[in-house]
Design a protein that fits this description.
One of its GO terms (molecular function) is RNA uridylyltransferase activity. InterPro entries: MTPAP-like_central, NT_sf. It comes from Camellia sinensis. By secondary structure, the protein is of the alpha+beta class. It folds into 4 domains: 67 residues, no CATH class; 113 residues, 2-Layer Sandwich (Beta Polymerase, domain 2); 187 residues, Orthogonal Bundle (Poly(a)-polymerase, middle domain), CATH 1.10.1410; 71 residues, no CATH class. The protein is 48% helix and 10% strand. Strands 1-2-5-4-3 form a 5-stranded mixed sheet, sandwiched between helices.
Length: 477
């Protein structure tokens, strides 16, 4: 009888949860057996179900920790980006129209939400004195064209691409031998402020950073982290995670209006130093207030459960998109007709930028891609809750082939040793004894085969790798 009841409980169709599903499925057994005996059998079967579920979650938790070990940047990855920034500063000062401009990183690198092969966003800030001023699109295009010619003349940069027609014109390129994609814009102050805000939000709950890295890799693996193909950009994915944390029970993040009540881009006026200090002081005060609230329940949710509930929350995103706006500013699904600024737009999906309202950060998502986006959420959710998981199948589901090749064939002895709460920037830069995985990657060079674009590994000596940076997969994260 235990085996029969266990089969019912473990069947996805025959059992809809112990509290609500057993009556209909087990009613015939109750008529034919002693109720006490049946209840004992139910208890044993439920224990089997719980043990199977716990084992599956444990495998997922360990695998997520291992993924984080792989994708987290090493000290050399940070140094490579600083090298690019410093070299670009030299080029900028050589361009007559850019003399006196500063070169400032923003995006995932500045907010510490980048992976080992993440791209690098850079703003060239023009010397406008003390005051904040905007740069017209035509002048921006001219200045980026000047920079493009200077980079071409030096021969150290490849894959140069000038995207002049974009909402924010950008110049894309890579530094030879470093394989890091760079996007350069002009006077992108709003991008710099948004990056700082994401960095400050991470101070509330360090698990936010882990989720961002994991979700980016998962979305890239499923082809839904590519704005050029009509899916999510990485900034929108970060906003979805903020919204998920706001709507968890208990909430892990507050509505962002409680961190900064106004529209931040509207306050970027006047003296730049004063405006930035005012925004920082307001955010710092409100973040400290939220963190020090003794009545707030602390985050004790395992990373695996946060990831699974994230997938479940947005599995029906294609259905809700026609009527609702995802609004991190209020921390709620908002009815799209409740705000005329939303209703006037005809987007496939609306994720309001909480720092630049009512701009839609998901404006590049195309309607024909929404079904594929929902299917990615649904399919992965089914796999993760199925219980039929192992390390290999989870890695295949959660990261792409260009990343999975970096995993050792056997699991780490202690993958759970990865700390979610330890500040990642300081751990990566100052750790005196890198982990076994980091040591493995530092001693590995990845070469691209000229014929089939496949990647092969080979170990190199310590003296040789000092002179050559390991090539990274081509990712736009």
């Amino acid at each position: 009888m235990v085996a029969t009841i266990a089969a019912i409980i473990l069947s996805p169709k025959g059992f809809q949860g112990f509290e609500g599903g057993w009556n209909l499925s087990l009613r015939p057994l109750l008529h034919n057996s002693s109720q006490l005996l049946v209840m004992v059998a139910i208890s044993k079967a439920s224990t089997l179900f719980s043990a199977k579920k716990m084992s599956a979650y444990s495998t997922l938790e360990l695998t997520l920790s291992e993924i984080l070990r792989v994708v987290n940047p090493l000290r050399d990855d940070r140094l490579a980006r600083h090298q690019i920034i410093n070299e670009l500063r030299v080029v900028v000062q050589s361009v007559e129209s850019l003399r006196g401009a500063t070169v400032e990183p923003f995006g995932s690198f500045a907010s510490d939400l980048f992976t080992r092969w993440g791209d690098l966003d850079i703003s060239i800030d023009l010397p406008n004195g003390l005051y904040i001023s905007s740069t017209g699109k035509r002048r921006t295009q001219t200045l980026l064209g000047d920079l493009l010619r200077a980079l071409r003349s030096r021969g150290q940069w490849r894959d140069l691409q000038f995207i002049a027609s974009a909402r924010v014109p950008i110049l894309k390129f890579e530094r030879n031998h470093l394989n890091i994609s760079c996007d350069v814009s002009i006077n992108n102050l709003s991008g710099q402020i948004k990056s700082k805000l994401l960095l400050w939000i991470n101070e509330i709950d360090g698990c936010f950073r882990d989720m961002v890295l994991l979700v980016k890799e998962w979305a890239k693996a499923h082809g839904i982290n590519d704005s050029k193909s009509g899916t999510f950009n990485s900034y929108t994915l970060s906003l979805l995670i903020i919204f998920h944390f706001q709507t968890c029970v208990p909430a892990l993040l507050p509505p962002l209006k409680e961190i900064y009540p106004r529209n931040i881009v509207d306050d970027l006026i006047g003296v730049r130093a004063v405006a930035e200090r005012r925004i920082k002081d307001t955010c710092t005060e409100n973040i400290n207030k939220f963190r020090s609230n003794r009545s707030r329940r602390r985050n004790q949710i395992p990373l695996s459960e946060l990831f699974i509930s994230f997938l479940a929350k947005f599995s029906d995103i294609s259905c809700r998109a026609s009527e609702h706006v995802i609004c991190p500013h209020t921390g709620r699904w908002e009815y799209i007709g409740s705000n005329m600024k939303w209703a006037r737009k005809n987007f496939a999906l609306f994720v309001e930028d909480p720092f630049e309202q009512p701009v839609n950060s998901a404006r590049t998502v195309r309607r024909e891609q929404l079904t594929r986006i929902s299917e990615a959420f649904q399919t992965t959710h089914r796999v993760l809750i199925s219980g039929n998981q192992n390390r290999s199948s989870l890695i295949t589901t959660l990261v792409g082939p260009q990343v999975s090749q970096y995993f050792p064939r056997t699991p780490l002895n202690n993958p759970i040793g990865y700390s979610r709460t330890q500040p990642q920037m300081h751990r990566a830069v100052h750790s005196p004894s890198p982990s076994r995985v980091q040591h493995h990657f530092q001693n590995t060079r990845v070469d691209r085969h000229p014929n089939n674009n496949m990647i092969a590994h080979r170990t190199v000596s310590a003296s040789h790798r000092q002179g050559q940076q390991a090539r990274r997969p081509r990712y736009d994260i």
